[in-house]
């Protein structure tokens, strides 16, 4: 048996378990996922914070980060995967995983960009969930294209076989 984790929707590419959590698993690797963004509820979302709100949330999660000065300078250039999901980003002198930022700020996914608008930090988010394993909307799209459940499962859980469990 595998740890068959899933999420609502990815940004066109799932994530490897090791990019999101502490351990990697050979069958939880990044794979393309057909996402019909326009047809997915809340596929795109926007979240904004005042400087004080953002500082409080980030300091709680990253106590070693130096969040002095203008909030526009707190984040460095993000390292992203092929779908644009934040893998890591410099934050006030520390390196944060995109999944950690997502958790600290309550974002729908780690596929996000940010900018300062009218004195607030605005995050533009794509997808919903941690991004590891099966994407529910991606699996639905594969089914609509004619894939059966075995093809869908072996697509999202790489290198596995689908068979009856005898244990």
By secondary-structure content and strand pairing, the structural class works out as alpha+beta
Strand order of the largest sheet: 2-7-6
Sheet with most strands: 3 strands, antiparallel
Shape call: elongated
Q: Low-confidence spans: pLDDT under 50, at least 5 residues?
A: none
**What value does the Rg take, in angstroms?**
18 Å
Which H/E pattern describes the elements? EHEHEEEHEEEHH
Beta-strand percent range: 15-25%
In short:
With 167 residues, the chain is α+β, with helices and mostly antiparallel strands.
What brief labels describe this structure?
167 residues; alpha+beta; 3-stranded antiparallel β-sheet; 5 helices; 8 strands; elongated
SSE topology sketch:
Layout: E1 6-7, H1 17-20, E2 44-50, H2 51-61, E3 79-80, E4 86-91, E5 94-97, H3 98-105, E6 112-117, E7 120-126, E8 134-135, H4 136-144, H5 149-156
Parallel strand pairs: 1-8
Antiparallel strand pairs: 2-7, 3-4, 4-5, 6-7
Helix pairs in contact: 2-3
Written description of the protein model:
With 167 residues, this protein is of the alpha+beta class. It is built from five helices and eight strands, in the order βαβαβββαβββαα. The strands form three sheets. A three-stranded antiparallel beta sheet has the order 2-7-6. The chain has a three-stranded antiparallel beta sheet with strand order 3-4-5.
């Amino acid at each position: 048996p595998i740890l068959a984790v899933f999420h609502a929707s990815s940004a066109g590419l799932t994530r490897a378990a090791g990019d999101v959590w502490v351990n990697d698993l050979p069958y939880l690797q990044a794979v393309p996922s057909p996402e019909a963004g326009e047809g997915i509820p809340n596929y795109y979302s926007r979240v904004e914070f005042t400087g004080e709100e953002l500082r409080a949330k980030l300091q709680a999660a990253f106590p070693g980060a130096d969040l002095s000065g203008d909030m526009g300078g707190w984040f460095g250039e993000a390292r992203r995967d092929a779908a644009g999901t934040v893998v890591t980003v410099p934050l006030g002198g520390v390196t944060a995983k995109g999944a950690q930022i997502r958790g600290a700020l309550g974002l729908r996914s780690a596929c996000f960009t940010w900018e300062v608008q009218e004195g607030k930090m605005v995050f533009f988010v794509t997808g919903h969930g941690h991004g590891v394993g099966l994407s529910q909307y991606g699996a639905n799209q594969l089914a609509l294209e004619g894939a059966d459940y075995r093809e869908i499962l072996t697509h999202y859980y790489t290198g596995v076989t689908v068979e009856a469990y005898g244990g």
